[in-house]
Amino acid sequence: MKLSTGIALRACSVVFLSTFSALAQRSAVKPPSDDDKQLSLRGQLGRDPHDREAHNQLVALLRKNYAFRTELEEDAVWLKNNPDDYSAEISMRSLATTINDPEFAINIDRYILAHAKREDYPAGYDTGGDRLAFLLIGRGQYPEALVLLKRATQLSPSDPGVWENLGDGQVKAGQYSEAVSSYKKSLDLDGNQELTHEGLALAYFNLKDYLGSAIELQASISVYNAQYHGGAPTDSWHQAIKNINKMTKSDLALCNLHLMLAKTLLAHKKFDPALAEVETASHLDDNFSPYYLRAEIYDAMGQLEKASAARESARLAVEKLLKSQPPSKDEFSRALSLPQEVFVMTLSGEIVDTAHELIVLLEPLNKTLKPLDRQFLGMAYCEKKRLTECEEQMTVVLQSNDKWNNAVTQNGYAKALVENYDSADAIEHFARAYELEPQNATYRADYEAAKTP
């Protein structure tokens, strides 16, 4: 049957309108929100807890929204269902450190080791055990950590790395004589390990055997030079470091070895050789530690004018660095009275007396310091056992505003009090940190430990 023109046009209009209506309705439907996607992905994981793609998508969504605590909890659920996923375990530990909750990662790592089977993946299982051990050491839980590290030496007695790890753990636990034995076993298996010589030097240093420490540091420097600057065969790792050093035209690791040797010679009152090592270090890398260690050597020699000149040289070097870079706009720098680089240059671990240098730097500026400056100064006073001044600075910080009266600041202050005074005053600050962030397993554990007589 043939339709008339009018009927045909009306039919076309009806089809067009219905199609347009459908398209309009479809376009009005909003795409799923991130919350909807998360709900859907959690449903998928509920049906299949081993769905790696769903887990990865969920983690990506949480990271996109900076939901780090929730991401950590999702990692924990995933690892309980997939205890042999060591890449996820590494991610979880890194995230736990970022949000200041290593105790959470410790609990999950314990669960993994208890439920995974070593025979399924011996290398990954053993590496996980080592990582847990050093997490425990970071929390001062030495007995459990050393059990894990000693077990590794029993499982792989011919592996020099496990003996080095045990030595590192024993140094952290203050067991320096035992560490010497562990490092020597590692070196008996492989003498070409600069890090093991360095660890043995640190153990000797803490035993006040400065001659033994200097000899091991010289050995470490010799091995390092052979691997990175000589013709000794190198593996891919050493080659990568060589390439980085060549690209940056510096060698921070070798610089620090010479600085450690200088510090050892300083402790042994060998001032001129110590200054010579600092001079060598200063040509190896453009960092600021040599200035400050040189100042500390001059302090020990009683040459205070030269010490002051060394610190002034550091200030001028920082000033030159700042002029060569665009001004920093990050929140950390804005929270300081002084530029961020000033603090970076003084944070040199065991090489430079960081607390002393911070006090020298900040004390004269006390009236103009911002809260974060005061926090640095307060912690430095605490480390130097100057409790009254520590409390004065930290009281100003905590009362400045709610931004600084946070769980991280409260917990850090409490830990500093315990480490330096074993003070009952720490309990209220542990309690406040836990109150501010009750989901943090570390703050809860610290508070419970502080309450225990």
Q: Secondary-structure blueprint of this entry?
A:
Elements: H1 5-28, H2 34-47, H3 52-64, H4 68-81, H5 86-98, H6 102-115, H7 122-138, H8 142-155, H9 160-172, H10 176-189, H11 194-206, H12 210-228, H13 236-248, H14 252-267, H15 271-282, H16 289-301, H17 304-323, H18 331-334, H19 340-346, H20 354-362, H21 371-383, H22 387-400, H23 407-421, H24 426-436, H25 441-451
Helix pairs in contact: 2-3, 3-4, 4-5, 5-6, 6-7, 7-8, 8-9, 9-10, 9-11, 10-11, 11-12, 12-14, 14-15, 14-16, 15-16, 16-17, 20-21, 21-22, 21-23, 23-24, 24-25
If you had to describe this structure to a student in words, what would you say it looks like?
75% of the residues lie in helices and 0% in strands. With 453 residues, the protein is mostly helical. α3 runs antiparallel to α4, α20 (354-362) crosses α21 (371-383) and α23 packs antiparallel against α24 (426-436). The N and C termini lie far apart (99 Å).
Provide key terms for this protein.
453 residues; mainly alpha; globular
Average residue pLDDT: 87
User: Helix fraction?
Assistant: over 70%
How many helical stretches?
A: 25
Shape: globular
Which strand-content bin applies to the residues?
Answer: under 5%
Q: Largest beta sheet, briefly?
A: none
Rg (CA only): 29 Å
Number of strands: 0
CA-CA gap between termini:
99 Å
Weakly predicted, low-confidence segments = 1-24
The ordered string of helix (H) and strand (E) elements is HHHHHHHHHHHHHHHHHHHHHHHHH
Backbone structural class: mainly alpha
